[in-house]
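Task: sequence in, structure out. Protein: Protein SlyX homolog.
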Amino acid sequence: MTDAVENRLIDIEIKLAHQEDLVESLNERIYQQQKQIDQLEGTLALLAERIRTSNSAQAPLNERPPHY
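Result:
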């Protein structure tokens, strides 16, 4: 193998190693973001349920108080 071909092969291997590292770090970031999205969706569902249950327990907004 000539030096030029060997150097090109080494450059390609270096670039491939960097790309593999980048893909792995992007995968980890996506995984962490999905965990956060799942957690936020759970929190949102709990808050929505709390709002639904608290609204049904309150008097309607247009109803007059009993002393009128």
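The chain has a mean pLDDT of 90.
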